[in-house]
Specification:
The structure holds 2 protein chains of 2 kinds. By secondary structure, chain A is α/β, with parallel strands linked by helices. Chain A is built from 14 helices and 11 strands. Chain A folds into 2 domains: about 170 residues, Rossmann fold, CATH 3.40.50; about 90 residues, Helicase, Ruva Protein, domain 3 (Orthogonal Bundle). A 5-stranded parallel β-sheet of chain A has the order 4-7-10-1-11. In chain A, strands 2-3 form a two-stranded antiparallel ribbon. In chain A, strands 5-6 form a two-stranded antiparallel ribbon. The longest helix of chain A has 28 residues. Chain B is α/β, with parallel strands linked by helices. Helices cover about 40% and strands about 15% of the residues of chain B. The longest helix of chain B is centred in the N-terminal third of the chain and has 21 residues. The chains are: A alpha/beta, B alpha/beta. At the A-B interface, α4, α5, α7, β8 and α8 of A face α3, α4, α8, α16 and α18 of B.
Chain lengths: ~350, ~625
């Protein structure tokens, strides 16, 4: 699909939390991706594609199948490493790499390039989905239906930022830093808590039930299908300002140093809710700083933590994975505001 | 490679730093396991090893196969020279280095055992793909795991010399410090590492200076170690040996030539916690060396407190009180004929015992999660190896086939082809799928279950079993029988969330159509027979069936017929007897006999009760 015909991000109606979660991740990928729970036909993949298409091109090592980032000299694949002196730079658009449900392990992780091995008698690594995803968005539709061993693979490389391959006589490793976007319909099965915790953010979405919004969604969709280019040009201005905001925020967020109030707010709410591990705390702080940057501020406040907590906490609530995570957001927000006063 | 997080910067990481240092010092310590919940910095700490040693690090990814681990026929020399040569392998590369395995409980257990064996023996030996691969391997394995994702069996745990449990931090100051450090590191790894390089270097120097060969162990220590191991109910002698080795490494690390009680204490903490069976009350078995420990991490105290015998006693007591309360409930309500319907709350949850006999799961050890696998026939699942095929080859293991053909390439007629494969060269992939179990709960929802709030306890038990099923990644389903028939409330699913919701809403009331319930359960399990999942039916009832099949035959005759059909079908059944009270009819036991089921009473499902009784028996023994 050419970039011209991607539905404009700015034209997506509603689903504000999902859009914000996606944007925060593109500003600061270390937030750790987003899980979108909800029904089919709620613009999940449209939003992801639309967002990717409005981002600027990435600088990568020319021709590298693992998409090694230009400038990340201590995080290259072995091939780029060994050719350090001769590699060149090229730019590539941000891509949305899909992981189909039927994927096999060797296609995901990469494996021995059989054709090359037979014709030349030399071992060569054939990159898989994780290599393609490096530096891009990895989109896993219905991630809860994925086979366990594939999920383990994703989990491992997402955590390490690097994919280690040991198969068919190939030993290889390459950077695998991607924004993981997963979708799932909770009615069709659970996601293991360990994988849940790996997702930085989570949003629950549902179709719009407001009649006016619904008809607006359909109206825009039809207008887009009738004349994609004309439709896109209508939203070009809005798209550009979203992009400019994202780019500006990327610069700002690097310099935001969260003060003790922000850290304490995050830690206190985690302790209050009995969330184990440090990932929740860390993600809350990162997301708060990123949100502050996105709204043009150079300082994060406890208020920012309160704002992002509804994206960071819901999926980490359950110590017992089977009870419905019932996060009473209203109650929590009152508690957090009261706590913020004491900081 | 990117910079590792400095090991000295791991907040409250004394135990981990000790473990890795001692592992690097002692030539006899081969494996370290770091256990803890997600997001507690296990992997970060494991990789911190590279901050205090220059040894090469070799990663063992989750999907590692035997041939990769041990080596097989090298494809390059096979294709180019038509020669069989052993390929490079993980263990050959690991010689003189460090092996790191994250999520080691997701690794297949035979691979893990192969690694642990090789490290212990100091050499590896494989016969893969018709070639012998062997060599020396001197390496330290640093593994991590989250026990919630499936435990390692006790016999595998025992193989780890050292085990460190990472506890989540509960104090605000600690958690703030952790975040602060991680953020600082991510912002500027180089300068953060510089800040801690002095500390890292200090550890490195101590390790380099350490000479644990010449460390002396005074006489009394050997008997002290055996006494501690006996007291902690450690089986086998690996624990004793590990304590001895770690003790010497600890003394060497401190620059001493003779071990002292502090070394012993450190070694016990590192080597024995994961080996103890049926945890006796912690404080009693904790060896208390009279000397004051100089660098006892402060979080130990809270750990001890959590598991003090008082707490455990209280817990057991409160549970007993709950069931006492049940017993006192008014029994008039329990009239089976009562038509009114009630929905009971979900009672207390507990850790369940292994109520499903392991042979019906085909699993090797308890709660082993991923290790319950079976060979898959339909080309799906994870490829773990290859075989010489019988009959038509469907799933060609191409690389293995080429390797098999390699020696004949020089003599074959190539017709312009690079590699000539003949039928006899072809190898077929072996794939495994996780061996699933479908656990179908067939629940008595009749009025008699409402008696004495029995349903509350039953629901608590089912929820506990669901929790267990989740850990094992079983499919679960729910059938309820009451009034005039049986109903499938939930067809087998892996969504335990949905199962919980339907459990909460499960009503009680009316007569007991036990046979209908069994038939419905049988139907569901038979329907899913194709799925390749092992069917298990768990029947929760007091066994007092009083509704037939609508014909004029007596209910008891219908029941025995149905039970006979199920017994013959080979479906594994477990009867959980929910009967309470002074006068018991023992009907559930009769049912179990008719269905050739395992039989268990509801109360015995609770692992707490069981271990508590074992514990009290043990303490009696110790008193004597």
């Amino acid at each position: 699909m050419s970039r011209m015909t991607t539905y404009p991000f700015a034209a997506i109606v509603g689903q504000e939390e999902m859009k914000e979660g996606l944007i925060l991740n593109t500003i600061n990928p270390s937030i750790g991706g987003i899980l979108i729970r909800g029904e089919k036909g709620t613009a999940k993949s449209t939003a992801v594609r639309a967002l990717a298409s409005l981002l600027p091109d990435r600088e990568v090592v020319k021709g590298c199948p693992c998409g090694c980032r230009w400038g990340a000299w201590d995080d290259l694949c072995p091939d780029c490493q060994s050719m350090r002196d001769s590699i060149e730079m090229e730019t590539q658009p941000m891509r949305v790499v899909e992981l189909p449900l039927s994927s096999t392990e060797d296609r995901v992780a990469g494996t021995l390039d059989i054709e090359h091995a037979i014709t030349t008698g030399r071992k060569r690594f054939e990159p898989g989905v994780l290599a393609k995803a490096n530096g891009n968005i990895l989109y896993v539709d219905e991630i809860n239906l994925l086979d366990d061993h594939i999920v383990d693979l994703l989990l491992d490389s997402a955590a390490m930022g690097r994919n280690f391959i040991e198969r068919e006589g190939i030993s290889y490793s390459h950077p695998a830093r991607f924004i993981l976007v997963g979708t799932m319909n909770p009615e069709e099965g659970d996601l293991r808590p360990q994988l849940l915790d790996r997702f930085g953010l989570m949003v629950d979405i549902r179709g719009e039930y407001d009649e006016r919004l619904r008809s607006e969604i359909i109206r825009r969709r039809l207008a887009f299908e009738r004349d994609p280019e004309g439709f896109c040009s209508l939203y070009e201005g809005d798209n550009v300002s979203i992009r400019d905001n994202i780019l500006a925020a990327r610069d700002i967020v690097r310099d935001i140093e969260p003060d003790d109030r922000v850290l304490d707010m995050a830690v206190k709410v985690s302790i209050h809710l009995g969330v184990d591990g440090h990932r929740a705390d860390l993600t809350m702080v990162k997301a708060a700083c990123t949100y502050a940057a996105y709204t043009g501020r150079e300082e994060a406040t406890p208020e920012d933590v309160i704002h992002v907590s509804k994206l960071v906490l819901p999926h980490r609530m359950r110590r017992n994975p089977f009870q419905d995570s019932t996060l009473d957001t209203g109650e929590l927000e009152r508690w957090m505001r009261a706590t913020a006063e004491t900081l | 490679m990117t910079l590792p997080f400095p090991i000295s910067a791991v907040h409250k990481g004394d135990r981990i730093r000790q473990a890795i240092s001692f592992g690097l010092i002692s030539p006899d310590v081969h494996s370290i396991l770091i256990r803890g919940p997600p997001g507690t910095g296990k992997s970060v700490a494991a990789r911190g090893a590279s901050c205090i040693t220059d040894l090469r690090i070799v990663e063992i990814p989750v999907g590692t196969t035997r041939e990769q681990l041990l080596g097989s026929v090298d494809i390059e020399s096979a294709v180019r020279e038509g020669r069989r040569k052993v390929s490079d392998s993980i263990l050959s590369r690991a010689d003189g280095g460090i092996l790191i395995a994250d999520n080691v409980n997701l690794l297949s257990s035979d691979i893990l055992l192969e690694i642990l064996d090789s490290l212990e023996r100091g050499y590896y030996h494989g016969e893969v793909g018709g070639i012998t691969s062997e060599g020396g391997v001197d390496s330290l394995l640093v593994a991590t795991m989250d026990p919630d994702e499936g435990d390692l069996g006790e016999h595998i745990l025992d193989r780890f010399d050292i085990c460190v449990d990472v506890e989540p931090m509960s104090f605000q100051e600690d958690r703030r410090e952790v975040i602060r450090r991680v953020l600082d590191f991510e912002r500027d790894p180089a300068s953060f590492s510089r800040r801690y390089s002095e500390d890292d270097d200090a550890i490195r120097e101590r390790i380099d200076r350490s000479d644990c060969i010449s460390v002396e162990v005074p006489d009394g220590f050997h008997s002290m170690i055996s006494a501690i191991c006996t007291e902690m109910h450690i089986e086998g002698h690996r624990g004793d040996v590990a304590v001895l080795n770690v003790m010497r490494a600890s003394a060497a690390f401190d620059g001493r030539e003779v071990v002292n009680r502090n070394d012993l204490k450190r070694a016990v903490m590192l080597c024995l916690q994961h080996r103890r069976r049926d945890m006796p009350p912690e404080a009693e078995s904790e060896p208390e060396p009279p000397e004051e420990p100089p660098e006892q991490p402060p979080d130990d105290e809270s750990q001890d407190r959590d598991q003090s015998p008082d707490d455990q006693g209280e817990q057991v007591q409160s549970e007993t009180q709950v069931s006492d309360g049940d017993g006192d409930g008014d029994s008039e309500e329990g009239d089976g004929r009562q038509a009114s319907e009630r929905t009971f709350a979900v009672g207390e949850q507990f850790d369940v015992t292994d109520y499903i006999p392991p042979e019906s799961r085909g699993s090797r050890n308890r709660r082993s999660g991923r290790q319950d696998t079976s060979i898959s026939k339909d080309g799906s699942g994870r490829a773990v190896g290859y075989i010489i095929p019988r009959g038509k080859v469907r799933d060609v293991a191409l690389v293995a086939s080429i390797r098999a053909a390699a020696p004949y390439q020089l003599t074959r007629d190539h017709h312009g082809l690079a590699v000539v494969l003949e039928n006899g060269d072809l190898r077929e992939r072996v794939r495994v799928r996780r061996k699933g179990t479908t656990v179908l709960f067939v629940v008595d929802g009749s009025g008699s279950m409402g008696a004495q709030n029995r349903m509350v306890a039953v629901k608590g038990a089912i929820l506990s079993m669901l929790t267990d099923a989740y850990r094992r990644r079983d499919y679960v389903g729910l059938v309820i029988f009451r009034g005039d028939g049986a109903e499938t409330v939930l067809p087998p699913t892996r969504s335990v969330q949905i199962a919980c919701r339907s459990l909460e809403a499960l009503p009680t009331g009316g007569r007991t159509p036990l046979s209908s319930g069994l038939r419905e359960g049988y139907r569901i399990l038979r329907r899913d027979a194709e799925s390749g999942l092992e069917p298990v039916m768990v029947v929760l009832t007091d066994g007092k069936g009083n509704v037939g099949d609508g014909s004029d035959r007596p209910a008891s005759q219908v029941l025995s017929e149905t039970a006979g059909v199920i017994a013959d079908s080979g479906i594994r059944t477990i009867v959980v007897d929910t009967e309470v009270g002074l006068v018991r009819f023992g009907k559930a036991l009769d049912l179990a006999a008719m269905m050739e089921s395992s039989y268990v009473q509801l109360e015995d499902l609770n692992a707490e009760h069981l271990s508590a009784s074992v514990r009290s028996a043990l303490s009696l023994f110790e008193d004597r």
